[in-house]
Amino acid sequence: MKLHGFFRSTASWRVRIACALKGVSLDHQSYKLRRGDQRSDAYLALNPQGLVPALELDDGTVLTQSLAIIEWLEETIPEPHLLPSDPIARAKVRAFALAIAADIHPVQNLKVLFALAGHGLDEAAVNGWAATVITEGLGACEKLIADQDGPYCFGDTVGLADICLVPQIGNAKRFGVDLAAFPKLMAVDAACAQLPAFADAVPGRQADAE
Amino acid sequence: MKLHGFFRSTASWRVRIACALKGVSLDHQSYKLRRGDQRSDAYLALNPQGLVPALELDDGTVLTQSLAIIEWLEETIPEPHLLPSDPIARAKVRAFALAIAADIHPVQNLKVLFALAGHGLDEAAVNGWAATVITEGLGACEKLIADQDGPYCFGDTVGLADICLVPQIGNAKRFGVDLAAFPKLMAVDAACAQLPAFADAVPGRQADAE
């Protein structure tokens, strides 16, 4: 399988972790997002959204949207589970994942930051926008796992929530967010960093890292 | 079950449709979003994100995030299916749903529009932002179903993709988006409007409609 992505894209990062946890090895094709590679005709033919990642299967089928890709991995390679078996527990994990993947990341991604700059916001205001969105969002995430005991977001099995959290923490650091307010999230981040699937997926270890 | 929501919230609207399709009757509690009801202490205790919707089950369990709620409905009330059975087909439907729920809606929702106004954008610029995000996003969605024959997004069974599309078309109309460029999406919207579950879920038919 080939992952069309970018080392720093948090959505690509999620898929890298999930594939590693499932034992799926990936070829990688890199798209420099600031240069707009993801809006080339060739890539738009793969993914009309013009966003990374896209997962190209060996038969040519192309899957998009990191959470949809991860659900597909979960359905086709059940072990190790990335979602618990109980429906309520699954809903809680998915809600946490969506609190990041739908409510933080899309509002602070490069596309939105470029658009803000186009509306006249200076660099400090644009970066401040990202930091505010991340701080508010992680504040809610900290509360969503307030009754959990770790070491991972939802107990002693790593899964979808952790896969979304760790890259978002990475983005938080890039934007200078004060992470001291999120002790549970940071403990999860530290626990995940001990796992090879997470350690190998960090942006700095990718072939296209700048 | 009680749905904590708002008549105009597209995420609440999705859950209204899904529950109707599954035959689940709902009590409703309304939160005036412009007034900030969703940030009251009472509501934050239910949902730390301070966003609607939240689905409160009869035993007091609270589920959040519309897509997580709908996946829970699908897992606990399998019929009628809102997702196909084939894993690739499921991934395509989920990707379409996320293209709306993660990449359009969060970037044009009230919270972001308020923040833009706070950064000095005037009303025309703020509404233009929303219209641009929706236009670009629906353009990609139109292409994601280019090879589909209808009447619904993915064939002759209504499901998760349609549940996300119809409220987003509603938002597009509010922001004056030119919908003529999206003939396949509009045909799906028209087909869904014939179904009671969709017709009854429109904002204008809710008790809290203004």
TrEMBL record, chains A, B:
For this protein, the record's InterPro entries field holds: Glutathione-S-Trfase_C-like, Glutathione-S-Trfase_C_sf, Glutathione_S-Trfase, Glutathione_S-Trfase_N, GST_Zeta, GST_Zeta_C, GST_Zeta_N, Thioredoxin-like_sf
Under NCBIfam families, the record lists:
maiA
Q: Which residues form the GST N-terminal domain?
A: 1-81
* Coiled-coil annotated spans: none
For this protein, the record's SUPFAM superfamilies field holds: GST C-terminal domain-like (SSF47616), Thioredoxin-like (SSF52833)
Question: Top EC class per UniProt?
Answer: isomerase
* Organism from which the protein derives: Pacificispira spongiicola
Source domain of life is Bacteria
Question: Which Gene3D superfamilies does the record associate with it?
Answer: 1.20.1050.10, Glutaredoxin
Report the protein name in the record. Maleylacetoacetate isomerase
What EC number(s) does this enzyme carry? Answer: 5.2.1.2
Q: Which GO terms describe its cellular component?
A: cytoplasm
What does the record give under GO molecular function?
glutathione transferase activity; maleylacetoacetate isomerase activity
Question: Where do the GST C-terminal domain residues begin and end?
Answer: 86-210
Show the Pfam families listed in the entry: GST_C_2, GST_N_2
Q: Which UniProt keywords apply?
A: Isomerase
- GO BP, sorted A to Z: glutathione metabolic process; L-phenylalanine catabolic process
Lineage per the UniProt record: Bacteria, Pseudomonadati, Pseudomonadota, Alphaproteobacteria, Rhodospirillales
- What CDD domains does the database record attribute to this sequence? GST_C_Zeta, GST_N_Zeta
Stated family: Belongs to the GST superfamily. Zeta family.
